[in-house]
Recover the amino acids of this structure.
DNA sequence: TCCTTATTCAACCTTGAGGTTGAATACGAC
DNA sequence: GTCGTATTCAACCTCAAGGTTGAATAAGGA
């Protein structure tokens, strides 16, 4: 499924943008669960939940092994790590920049402190 | 805009599920930028980029101040923190559980190690 | 005042996401 | 083999997402 790294990230974020899927992920932190297990709390059809699981699987966030007719779903926590990786890299960059900026501003002879398209 | 915390998270994840918007976020870690600045690298229309910025803003990931006719966009890095917060909480939970499980398995008289809907 | 620049609003098109229902499939139990 | 259980496949519906173009708005500059 075209595991272009960028697309994988896109799918991972998209996967967690749905509250039901976030809920499923939360549920899976307690332990593996079958599709029917996962479906029971919701008012939606089993097929809908099956689709949700597929979305999570395509994003690499969960895996499914087969066990008789059941397909227990397992949370792949290292995929979550990849997401925090991306976010934290950028967050850090932004914050480093801000602190550098504050340093500079502190040394300034207090004129007008408007900063915008100043760079570029 | 109904700042229900769950919806906010949903919007934040949805926002970062688009590669163009992730790109914009990356660009903003370097410094604030106007909509036209942000649009220049892309082949899509200015209006499309304006929409992307709006999506990011509705998710709380960026803010826009007004400055003459310009609307410089600023990255709100603490919103990124909220996302990592959610992910890391669940990641941690899953990993703690796994390590507890390994402990238990280590103490076991090595029978079949199939684990599934065992809980519940 | 009139023009130019920067951005947004509005209407529209196309595609994909999330839901439904009704088969099809896969496997264990009898 | 046949039945029941667990899950997926397929076709379909509806609505929102991301894109387009063409006006409208806002504010500085001549």
């Amino acid at each position: 499924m075209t595991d272009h790294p960028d697309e994988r990230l896109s799918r991972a974020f998209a996967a967690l943008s749905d509250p039901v899927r976030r809920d499923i992920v939360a549920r899976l932190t307690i332990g593996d669960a079958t599709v029917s297990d996962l479906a029971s709390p919701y008012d939606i059809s089993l097929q809908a939940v099956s689709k949700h699981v597929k979305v999570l699987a395509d994003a690499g966030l969960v895996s499914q092994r087969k066990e008789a007719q059941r397909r227990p779903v397992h949370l792949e926590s290292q995929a979550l790590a990849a997401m925090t990786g991306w976010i934290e890299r950028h967050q850090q960059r932004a914050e480093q920049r801000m602190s550098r900026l504050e340093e500079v501003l502190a040394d300034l002879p207090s004129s007008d402190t408007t900063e915008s398209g100043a760079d570029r």
Notes: Residues 110-120 of chain B have pLDDT under 50 and may be disordered. Chain B touches chain A through 47 residues (CB under 8 Å). Helices of chain B lie at 5-16, 19-30, 35-39, 46-58, 77-106. Residues 5-79 of chain B form a domain with the Arc Repressor Mutant, subunit A fold (CATH 1.10.10.10).
